[in-house]
Amino acid sequence: MRRYGKHTDEDDVRVRPNRKGNRPRTHLRPKHEDASEGMVLTVDRGRLHVLIEGRTIIAMKARELGRKGVVVGDRVAVVGDLSGAKDTLARVVRVEERSSVLRRTADDDDPFERVVVANAEQLAIVTALADPEPRPRLIDRCLVAAFDAGLEPLLVLTKSDLAPADGLLETYRTLGVPFVVTNREELADGEAADRVRERLTDRITVFVGHSGVGKTTLVNALVPERKRATGRVNAVTGRGRHTTTSALALPLPDDKGWVIDTPGVRSFGLHHVDPTRVIHAFPDLEPGTDDCPRACSHDEPDCALDRWVADGHADPARLYSLRRLLATRERREGD
Questions:
Q1: Can you name the residues that pair with 253 across neighbouring β-strands?
Q2: Average pLDDT over residues 122-127
Q3: E-strand stretches of the chain
Q4: What is the pLDDT of residues 177-199, one digit of tens each?
Q5: Any idea of the CA torsion for 9, 11, 15, 19, to the nearest 10 degrees?
Q6: Is 233 helix (H, G, I), strand (E, B) or coil?
Q7: What does pTM read for this prediction?
Q8: What is the CB neighbour count within 10 angstroms for residue 52?
Q9: Partners of 124 in the beta sheet?
Q10: Cβ contacts of 59 within 8 Å, gap of 6 or more
Q11: Number of Cα atoms under 13 Å in the Cβ half of residue 153
């Protein structure tokens, strides 16, 4: 039913008064061109700790960001009180484009991915050689996640005073993953920290590993002025306790890089990983996929990589390593 006639004048249109007395809503949002840029150091119950010009301020995510998540490592634009004084609160109004995103899912059947960190350049996979026993399946899964995210992996083996590292390193020799082996004595005198720090200089490195492997102990040795709580391995279950409850970015001494300590993980789901991206981490094998059938899994009878290797273009052990990593997405860690 038409409310007004054909020749409606603006005086004929009734406007409902705004009882609240505030301005009507608009879809236009401010551009915040004067916002300051900072880096998210940690997220604690909705509060974002952001480093801006050498000081840490606390901020909340602005409503205009909607459901867009903000994680450790994000570069963000912040407005409001940036003094960092007690009881002040700023607003994060924009999340800048991410150069990399490390994700994981709770398990391989979980379609909901969780962003671990943003803008990291290197993934340090920390595992103990004993107490608790190493879990190669978890290492493989972290490697797949690193290759998928475009991060360079680094294998950090701890507690070499309890067990030798040669056997585990042989498993990853063909992958060419750089590694550092440490023990408790070297951590105590700083020698191990120096060797690890050489691999972290001028880079943003995220540390991942299951509980009890000495990840936070190593981070404390790298950044001695910021001690985080550590725990012990349960003598009955052989597993460590979660002592780190949230990811935290810490600057290395003399601002020569960043380390991001993360809570211990008991699984690393790969539901989000596209297997076709993992091949990019194998430049000696990637050209051989040109003749693969469409949607090739690289582990089937018609895969062209078998001929590529047979013709001498790559080491057979490299193809075996690729297929082992791809298979981790189809197997659970306990299998």
A1: none
A2: 96
A3: 36-44, 47-52, 55-61, 75-80, 90-95, 101-105, 113-118, 122-128, 152-158, 179-181, 204-208, 248-251, 258-261
A4: 999 999 988 888 888 899 999 99
A5: 170
A6: strand
A7: 0.81
A8: 17
A9: 154, 207
A10: 47, 48, 50, 76, 78, 80, 89, 90, 91, 92
A11: 24
